[in-house]
Write a structure and sequence with these properties.
Length: about 110
């Protein structure tokens, strides 16, 4: 089974600063390339601070380190107004993340022609 992180909130996908720091500790590539704004304002990096809790938008949703951090931190992994969940799908499924009324879900990719 493959695990994928989705956002069940109508807001943008993002992880908390705490999750972002953990991803950097684990060596997650995209997190290492992203600036750590919380390092400049550590006292302001509280869980509810919007400007510092919108991290990790470019991390692939099936990244093993992202899944691990969401499993470890649970709700503390949620970025500003995010509600992260892990969905498990069969390995062989070609998938994509879609939104319905702003809430994400995983769909199987189907062929289409114009």
């Amino acid at each position: 089974m493959r695990k994928i992180v989705i956002n069940k909130s109508v807001e943008e996908f993002c992880v908390s600063h705490k999750a972002f720091v953990r991803l950097r500790e684990l060596g997650q590539r995209e997190a290492l390339q992203e600036s750590d704004r919380g390092a400049y304002w550590p006292d302001a990096a509280a869980p509810k601070e919007p400007s510092l809790n919108r991290c990790g938008r470019l991390i692939p949703r099936d990244d093993e380190k992202l899944v691990r951090v969401v499993e470890e931190l649970l709700a503390e992994a949620n970025g500003h107004c995010a509600e992260l969940r892990i969905v498990a799908i069969p390995d062989e499924v070609q998938w994509e993340i879609r939104k319905t009324d702003g809430v994400e879900h995983v769909s199987e990719v189907h062929r289409t022609w114009d």
